[in-house]
Amino acid sequence: MPDMSASVSLAVTHLVPLAKEVDKNKVTPGVLGFIVFAVMALAVWGLMKSMSKHMQKVDFKESPDAEVEPAEKTDSTAQRG
């Protein structure tokens, strides 16, 4: 753990002068913020497109035998026991 706190204090000492140079009235997310937002937006768009394709493949129609089959299984197990 001592190495981690030393690296954190080193990073803070290097970032403090940078923070003093920035004008508080002109702080913006910048290019990095835009890039991160754009990547996240593209990822969400891709996931939604993929989900749409998978949902179109799902068949929601039930076969008429699906309702009869569980009743037959319960009757056959009751007769055996």
Mean pLDDT: 75
| Helix proportion | over 70%
Order of helices and strands: HHH
Query: Quick one: overall form?
Result: elongated
- List how many beta strands DSSP finds: 0
Q: Report the C-alpha radius of gyration, rounded.
A: 30 Å
The assembly state of the depicted protein chains is: single chain
- Helix/strand/pairing class, anyone? mainly alpha
Biggest sheet statistics: none
- The termini sit apart by 65 Å
Strand content: under 5%
Number of helices: 3
Ranges where pLDDT stays below 50 over 5 or more residues in a row are: none
Care to describe what's here?
This protein has about 80 residues and is mostly helical. Helix content is about 80%, strand content about 0%. It has three helices and no strands. The model has no long low-confidence stretch (mean pLDDT about 75).
Quick overview:
Keywords: Membrane, Transmembrane, Transmembrane helix. This protein is an all-alpha fold.
Q: Which features would summarize this protein structure in a list?
A:
81 residues; mainly alpha; elongated; 3 helices; 0% strand
Question: Topology, please?
Answer:
Layout: H1 2-21, H2 30-57, H3 65-80
